[in-house]
Amino acid sequence: MKKRMLSYSLLLSSVCLGVLAAPSKSAKVAIVDMRTILSQDPAVLKDDSKVFHEWRDLYNKLLSVSQPMQQEIIDLEALIQKKSKAFEEEGKEIEKLASVSSPEIIQGKIHELQRRAEAEIGPLYNNLQKSKTDVPRFMNEEFGKIQTTVLPKFQKAIDEVQKAQGWDFVVKKEMLASSLLDSSDFNITADVLKVLNANYAATKKQAAAKAK
Prior knowledge:
With 212 residues, the chain is mainly alpha-helical. It has helices at residues 9-14, 34-37, 42-45, 53-96, 103-165, 189-211; strands at residues 29-32, 169-172.
């Protein structure tokens, strides 16, 4: 599956971080790296200390559902190619009969071949085109549901850390100059992630207790 199918731009821009104007010189400004928390990098997703666990669970669930759909597209493309190749070879065999058969017979065989090819490949091609439209639409809709689930939790965690640590503003890492990006003194990503994962673990524990 082409793993680029999901863009962060809408997700990240939707998180309100309370920055409407540049802070004054005396303001305390913290940085949060949302791209790490919402990473789609397989290596990062495996690292419990770097990724929001609920995001990972929802993202992996979406992938598990979409992968068979993507495989169906691949299989349809392969089947269409195989059948097209077979009809092409059959057409070449018909052409070889030109020296021993009349033009009318050859033309009839070609027309029959074309009819069969259209009957067999046409529906497959239509299904392929439908899948290529439906699968991205499905992915976008499901990703939208993930946004609806996680965005309020991001903001709540950011607000909690901001209040507890006394920051005046919290901004996305992408908004700042590169010279400031590596300063751990201002980066609260780990703290926000800790709150997110602690809240998620508590929610799962409560759900498990209710299920007993």
